[in-house]
Each structure stands twice: as structure tokens, then as C-alpha cells.
Amino acid sequence: MTTPPGVSSSDFAAAIRQFADAVGEQWVFTSDEDVSTYRDAYSPMWGEADEKVASAAVAPETVEQIQQIVRVANRYSIPLYPISTGRNLAYGGSAPVYSGSVVLDLKRMNKILDVNEDQAYALVEPGVSYFDLYRHIREKGLKLWIDCPDPGWGSLIGNALDHGAGRTPLPYRDHFGAHCGMEVVLANGEVVRTGMGALPTAETWQHFQYGVGPWVDGLFSQSNLGIVTKMGFWLLPEPEASMTGQISVPRHDDAVELVRILGKLAFQGIVNCVFSVQSPVFGGPLDTEKSALLDRPGGGSGEEWDRYAASQGRPFWQTELRFYGPLKVIEAQWEHVKEQLAAIDGVRFTDGSVIRFPLTDEEVGRLADPGSLGIPSLSVFSSLEGSSGHLDASPMLPYSGETLLEAHKVFMKLFRDAGVPLLLGFAMSYHWRAFIMFQSINLTRDPAHMAKARSLYAQVIEVASDHGWGIYRSHAAFMDAVMDRYSFNDHSLLRMNETLKDALDPNGILSAGRYGIWPKHLRRERA
Amino acid sequence: MTTPPGVSSSDFAAAIRQFADAVGEQWVFTSDEDVSTYRDAYSPMWGEADEKVASAAVAPETVEQIQQIVRVANRYSIPLYPISTGRNLAYGGSAPVYSGSVVLDLKRMNKILDVNEDQAYALVEPGVSYFDLYRHIREKGLKLWIDCPDPGWGSLIGNALDHGAGRTPLPYRDHFGAHCGMEVVLANGEVVRTGMGALPTAETWQHFQYGVGPWVDGLFSQSNLGIVTKMGFWLLPEPEASMTGQISVPRHDDAVELVRILGKLAFQGIVNCVFSVQSPVFGGPLDTEKSALLDRPGGGSGEEWDRYAASQGRPFWQTELRFYGPLKVIEAQWEHVKEQLAAIDGVRFTDGSVIRFPLTDEEVGRLADPGSLGIPSLSVFSSLEGSSGHLDASPMLPYSGETLLEAHKVFMKLFRDAGVPLLLGFAMSYHWRAFIMFQSINLTRDPAHMAKARSLYAQVIEVASDHGWGIYRSHAAFMDAVMDRYSFNDHSLLRMNETLKDALDPNGILSAGRYGIWPKHLRRERA
Predict the structure, then answer these.
(1) Best A63, A174, A185, A199 residue to mutate vs chain B (most B CBs within 10 Å)
(2) pLDDT confidence tier of residue B423, bands split at 50, 70 and 90
(3) How confident is the model at residue A513, as a pLDDT?
(4) Are residues A201 and A322 in the same domain?
(5) Which chain A positions have a beta carbon within 8 Å of B176's beta carbon?
(6) Are A418 and A360 within one domain?
(7) Domain that holds residue A73
(8) A250 and A231 part of one domain
(9) What is the average pLDDT across B362-381?
(10) How many domains does chain A contain in total?
(11) A472 is known as an active-site residue
């Protein structure tokens, strides 16, 4: 049995015994075989000495059991690493940030506690997956949609706490933004309810986010300050219909007006879908002419790129919009979008098909893109065949065509210099007002390839940060590197977070190192 | 000169001198006349021994001056009470929660730091009022709307931090929800930037709220954990048009379907205005027949109320919706609303007028309700003539007609038993998914009347809390009473907030008592 660093074998054995007393022998995992199931399948250090691995795992079923576990962990200074369903692939999976931690696996806490159709919300435990909630709603025949990321096997709570997003309208696809009310077990074992939930018999725990006094919910996202055991989510009442429309514009510089107008429409709520501003030119196959352009100082002028695009017969930019709502409303929205974009010379529009709801199971099965309708699937994995996973760096850009053009040049050059093909050419409007421009780096389990992938990921962090395009979410292996760039005023935000950590988790038992926040005893060691 | 409790005259004099060194003599106020301008004009204890009053005030102009003031306050244990513009009327105005505090008046920090038209945001200091920002936008001819509360003289930052709301579409009218990025001076004098602002040269400080790691912004709302010195706000690009539509339904029990359908439409974003579900029957004049009904056990049945409403020729419930956007979209939305509500027997619709933007100054001057178009005014004060102010208790209700009916009965009985006329009969959808059912209690400066108003306010808190209808915001004099009801698990949320307070403000210099959070030394004293 591996023991956590700094914990004696006898203390660890005692803690494991007491975990078993709390949850039952069969829910404590210490064998290599069992513990290896918590490895990060997409680890960029797979099989190497630095791979972050757990020492054991414990899977409670109730809040009271979590409280007992936390008390034991405080007693013996055992580092715990809570996960919901552990599906945070590309960002660390179910493996701890601090090797030797005991994974606190909440998959057994999988109760859907409340789904209210008229008031359109759900209250769930951390082990509830998007599939679970979707099936529940479907079986009960409720006219509600969920919003899910790709893939759909993850936990609603886990994804929201990591600031994940899906693809239905706002506010729903901003999973943390559309949560309402939490229950949290603190490191000292106390159970806290946030927002209106602090009022016993509250009638608006899932209705009004802030409650009274400081709104503390954000503290428990991307952090290690508590264990979230319940969380409410707002749901979208099933719309009448949905419809797509495609847009393309011909020229390199058209990105500027395209993004400016789409931004305005999004801020007005007229465009309310995720849209991906894609370049079939930048993103298309690499031929000699394109290579030559990329190798020019500055990466090619607008005119040069326009000539290249014309020779290829490709529009420079394209996007697809999806509308959700009563058919006459969404038709009017699409018409307005066309009017606004008509200002761009050479813009083309293609009307997509209309889907009316509800759908039968058979119709659901035939959908090409279920995620855009809040239907969870695993279809995203079909595009990843042949690799052992990927690392996602995710810089955030403003809605600015100028910035989008600059970012394409910067990242294309970075990947080209590193000799790595880049699946680039798009920025997605997942969150309210920023594009995520994913830099996806494929992984294999070849040590040399992993080293190269790690080095490239580190460079993406540096280059993106240098340009002011902050990374919003990081793989566990790079959290320190990412946080290091959030350094305003000599890292005052990090130091404040450390103050909060010391106050709420004085023994540092929860998720050491998560998002760069280390407990006091490890902070000293690392410095 | 009054001194803060527990501070010697010599220490206080030294602190005042050092405040003057920091900001200049003329920006430190100690005379009775000057200090009295910080009294709460709507205090329910006006002129009484318990009235909360300041000992002095200091008005810095820069972040560096605030840092100096905070250091002096730590040195001499001076309680500070930061205000933005001090216009939080009905909730305490500019007077401290803890008598003897020095008001830290941020009105001189009134710079509009950035307004970006394409990206539709503003970055402001605490002294910037809704009027200031509105005038700036108007003068520059920017096609942007702000969202303002009634009245419009308050601070954007102050109002957002108190979870205030206005009346244009979501997300904009949820002022805290539509903020993006903060700069905060902590009690130890450190300056922290939150969200993407922690990344030097960030390009998305006003675009992406969460940044990386724990999202701490909520800690600084309704609290006393830091002094917010900059805050970004998302703005709505000016819509093409706006249009209203009135709805009435005839019967008492129609509240159930009316609210259910309006809720669904709001959750879908088809209705995106503030709507006030009003009862001209409950809210209308009190005649003998109505008095008799109210005196029945249970407050009258639905049938009895329907007979009364019919005899008065009044519909039981009514509401006005406002739509914002391209004319063809909002016409389609209103049409859809009518179709959905047609299920209610006897429903009536009246089409309102259409306003097209932009408006000339003259057209703005003629508007009956500028606030619904994001135009600040002071017109709300015209309805308050003859009183010395009012106290607002603000319980939150779910979107449920059953609850709305019950709440009307409960509060009408409460006010009737107290012998106080109640301006009731409406619930407003200011926030995303909850009604605020304001209980407005008029104030005069007659001690007997104030005592009665205080007692009634305290009763409203208790009765609302008993029913699970939590109060979202409170007058300074009642913050302890309100927070006392948020008692889940032996007040675990309050105890956690106290832990945060002790960690971030160990000397307890900031806003002692705000929203029930007291520094350690006063907590012990009070217990």
C-alpha cells in the first residue's frame, strides 16, 4: 500500500480502518488494481515517476459519512481528493493533484433529490450524471431540458464546479452561473447550506442564488475549500422548436465585422446559442502554398490570405447559429440576424432545418448533434480514435475579430514551430462574453511524445498569458503554471486564496494543490 | 467629537490626523454639522439613543489613499464603514451599522474608467452614479443602455454589492449577476483583482467573470470583507424597439395559471422584463365589504373574493409586460404570450405602444416610466410625499400562484392586525426566478410611530421567515434579526462567514455588523 507523503504507515492504516468503519469495508479501496482505476487516463505523465496517483479511495454514500471521513482525515493529516464522477478528462480525470492523496469518490451519492417541472429546476447529489438526470426527466415525461457538456457521462456538480459549459441557450449552458443553492461539507466537518438554503424550510433555495450576506458559492468552484454535496440547477422548459442557420463571409478581415455584429446580437439575447467562429482556410489542410504563407514574417497579410482562400474556393469564416423557441419568434430572430449581417459584402446564408419538440426516442436516436439540444451522448469520443487522449488548454478571448485574427497567427506559429499539427481555426462562445479558443494537444503513451506535449502545453500557457488571453481551466499537472500567471500585485489573489484556505481548512486535508492553492505545510516545502 | 467605542480620544485624534495626512485636511469630516450629513434620512430610530451614527468621515480619491486609511485604522482599531454614494435609502443610507464608525466615503472616486461600445461594458469606480454613466454614454452618443434602480442617483457598485436590481432585460437588471471583474482593497491594505483581472494585461477582465481558481467576487457583496474600488458591468446594446402588453385575468385562483405560464415564458427568455403581478382587488381601496372578507377566518375563500371582485368590476390580477428588441421579434413574442395565456378563461390583452430607439432628449423628457428603458430618474420620490421615508422588507417568493395567494393573506392579516394600512397587492420579478413581495412601511419622525414601524418590520421578518420566504436585503437596523433566521445547522453559514471575517479582517476594522457579521471582539461582547 502506498502511503500519503508525511503520513506514517501505522497512521495511514488506522485512518483506512476508520474510513471502513464509516462507509463499510467494501467501499474503501487500497489494492493496486482498485486504486489504478483512479488514474488519469489522459495523463501527460502516464507511467512516469511524476504521474499523480492516489494512495487509496473511499466512497461514502451519505453526508454523515463524509463528515466522519473528514474528521478522520483531520486526525491523521490524510490528504483527501474529492471527485464527483471523476470524468474531468483532459483536465486531470479522477487523479489527485497531489500524489498520495486518498480519492474521496462521491459516485455513490447519486440521488436526484428534486425535479420541479413548473419551476424548472433540479436538486442533485454529486454522483448524478447528465445521463442520469436526462433519463429521469425523460421517464417522467417532464417538459424540461438539461444542458450537458460533450461527453455526457460526467457529473452536473463536478462540471459546474470546474466552470464547464454546454451548448443550449444562456443562462443554462453556463453551468456554474445557472446553479442555485449548495450544500457543502467544510473541512471541519460542518455542513453549510448557501443562498436561501440557510433558511430552514426555505421555499426559494433553488430560486434565488444570493440569499443574504456574502455570497460564498464561488469559493467552492475550481478550489479546495469544501466538499459540495448538493447543488440546485435551473433548467430550460422545453422549447417549441429549434432551427439552424449557416453564415459564411469571404475575406480574412471580415472576421472583424462578423464578430462585432454577432457579439452585439448575443449581448441582446437575439443570438443565444453557442457559435463557433470557424475558418475553413486556417483550419483546412496544409498544402505548400499555405505553408509558405505561414512561414512569412507576420504569418501572411490579409490580401495574401484572401488570394489563397479564393484559390481554394473556400469562404474565410463561417459559423452556424441555432435558435430555440416558438417558431415565429426564432424565424424573426434569424431574419434579423441576416439583416444585420447583410452589411458584410459577400456574406452568404443557408437556412437549416427546423426541429419541433417533443421528440420520440427514435427521433432522438437519429440526431446528428444531440448535445446542442441538451441530450447527453458519448459521440465526441468517436473523433478521438487513435490517440490516448488529449490535453486542452483553453485561453479566453474577447469578442473581437482583430484579436481572433491575432490569436490564430500566434497559435498557428507556436504549433508550427513545435512541429505539431494544430487542429485550429475556431473559437467557441460557450460562456457569456468570451470565446474559448481551445488548443487541443493529442497524447500518446510514448514518453518522448508526452514530453513534447507537456512542453507545448506549457508554452501555450505562457504565450496566451503574455497576450492577456487568460486560461480559464487547466489540467491538474499545470495548475501551478497557470495560476502563476495570475500574478497581479505580486500574486495578491493567490495570497488571499491561501488565507481563505488556512482559515477554512487549517490542516490542509482537502485537494492539496488544486488550482494552485496549497495548504500551509506544503506551501512552505514548495517555496 | 464623538469617538468610536473602545478607542481613546488620543488614539482617535491621532487617527484623524493621519487620515488628514493621507487625503488632505478638507476631506476629513469631524464637525457635528458635517457628520450629520451621513445620518440615515430614513432611520427608524431618528433622534433616538439607538440611532446608528458616524463619529467622523473621510473621503479618499485614490486606491493608495484607501490603503493608507486602512493601515491607520488597523493601527488604532478604528471601525470604518465604506459607502459608495450612500444612497442605500430604506436599507440604511450612509449611516454605519455600528455606531461610532468612521464613514469611508468613496464619492470622490467617481471615474468612469472605460466604456466599450462594441464589447458593451463599463468599468467604473464606486462614486460613479447611474446618472453619471447615463450622461457619459449619452454625451458620447454610444448605443448602449445601462440598467438602473429607482431612484437613479445611487452608485452602480454600491447597488450591485447590495444585490439590487433594475428593470431592463436579464441578465442586465441583476446588477451583481451582470458585473464582471472587481478590484478590492482588503482590510490588510492589499489590492486584489478578481476574475481575469488577476492576469496582468488581461484582455477579458470585463468579459469572463470567473477567472481561474475560486471565484471570490460574491464575498464582497452584502458583507464587510473588503472595499471594492473598481467593478465592471455588462451593458445592453441599444435595442431597436420596445413595446408593452397588458394582461388581466378575472378570478382569484387565476393567479395559479397566470404565474405558472409567465414563469415558463420567463425561464425560456420569451418574457424578459420585470413584471409585477398585481391585484387591483387586494390592492384597491378598503371598503366595508372587503374589511369583512379580510376578517373572516382564513381571510375569505376564492369564491367570496371573486364575488367581491365582480361587484367592483375589477379583474383580480393584472400585469404589464415589456418587450425589447427588433420589432418583428418582440411582436412575435407578444403573440406567443397571448397564445399561451389564452388557456385562462376570461383573460384580456391590451396592446401597448411601441417605442423606437434612439430617443431625442425631448422624447426622453416625456417618458412616463424612464426606468423601464434604463434611464435614471428621481421620479419615484414623487410617490413618497408626506412621509419621512420608509422601511422596505423584501421577502422572496417562488414563481407560484398558490404561494402568492397565501402570502397576500398572511401579510394582509399581519398589517391589518397591526392597524397599519398596507400598500400591497403586487410581487415583482426583479431577479431571475423569484418574486420580491415588498412590504413597505412608512416612517415619520414621531417616536411612537417609529416604534410601531420597527415592531411591524420585525414581525414581517419573522412571519416571512416562518413561511420560508427569506428576506433578501435588509435595513441596517435589522440585519442581525434577518440573519438570525438563516440558521440552518446551528447557524453554520454565519459561523463560516465569521471565520472568513477573522481571516481577512483580523482586527475587525471593516463595516462591523454588516449583514450580521461582527468582528471577533464585538462578537464576544454581544454574546
Answers:
(1) A199
(2) low
(3) 97
(4) no
(5) 210, 215
(6) yes
(7) 9-105
(8) no
(9) 90
(10) 4
(11) yes
Say what the pLDDT of residue A387 is.
65
Residue B514 sits in a domain of what CATH number? 1.10.45.10
Q: Tell me if B197 and A335 make a contact (CB, 8 A cut-off).
A: no
Tell me the average pLDDT of chain A: 94
- Is residue A180 within 8 Å of residue A206, measured between CB atoms? yes
The grid coordinates of residue B51 equal 440611532
Specify whether A218 is located in the same domain as A169.
yes
The answer to whether residue A31 sits within a structural domain is yes
Judge whether A308 counts as a catalytic residue: no
Q: Are residues A223 and A245 in the same domain?
A: no
The CATH number that applies at residue A382 is 3.40.462.10
In this structure, is residue A233 part of a structural domain?
yes
Domain termination site, one of B175, B206, B237? B237
Residue of A nearest to B258 (CA): A118
Interchain pair B218, A210: CB under 8 A: yes
Predicted structure pTM score: 0.97
More confident residue, A387 or A212: A212
CA distance B223 to B77: 19
Minimal-distance CA residue of chain B relative to A403: B203
Distance of alpha carbon B360 from alpha carbon B367, whole angstroms: 11
* A73 and A127 both lie in a single domain: no
Known catalytic residue at B91: yes
Answer whether residue B403 is part of any domain: yes
Give contacts of A222 with chain B, Cβ < 8 Å.
210, 212-215
- Same domain (yes/no): B518, B467: no
Inter-chain touch B118–A400, beta carbons under 8 Å: yes
B415-435 burial, b at 16+ Cβ within 10 Å, e below that, comes to bbebeeebebbbbbbbbbbbb
Within a domain: A3: no
Mapping DSSP to helix (H, G, I), strand (E, B) and coil, where does residue B36 land? helix
Residue A8: CB atoms within 10 Å: 11
Gap between the Cα atoms of A96 and A82, Å rounded: 9
Sequence-ordered strand ranges (E) for A293-420 = 317-325, 348-356, 390-393, 396-398
ipTM at complex level:
0.97
Residue of B nearest to A505 (CA): B499
How confident is residue B383, by pLDDT bands cut at 50, 70 and 90? low
Residue A386: which pLDDT band, with cuts at 50, 70 and 90?
Answer: low
Interval B401-411 mean pLDDT? 95
Catalytic residue selected from B251, B472, B514, B515: B472
CATH code assigned at B120: 3.30.465.10
Residues of A in contact with B502 (CB under 8 A): 503
Count CA atoms closer than 13 A to B417's CA, side-chain side: 13
Q: Do both B168 and B296 map to the same domain?
A: no
- Chain A hits for B266, CB-CB cut-off 8 Å, are none
Interchain CB distance below 8 Å, A119 and B200: no
pLDDT tens track for B187-238: 999 999 999 999 999 999 999 999 999 999 999 999 999 999 999 999 999 9
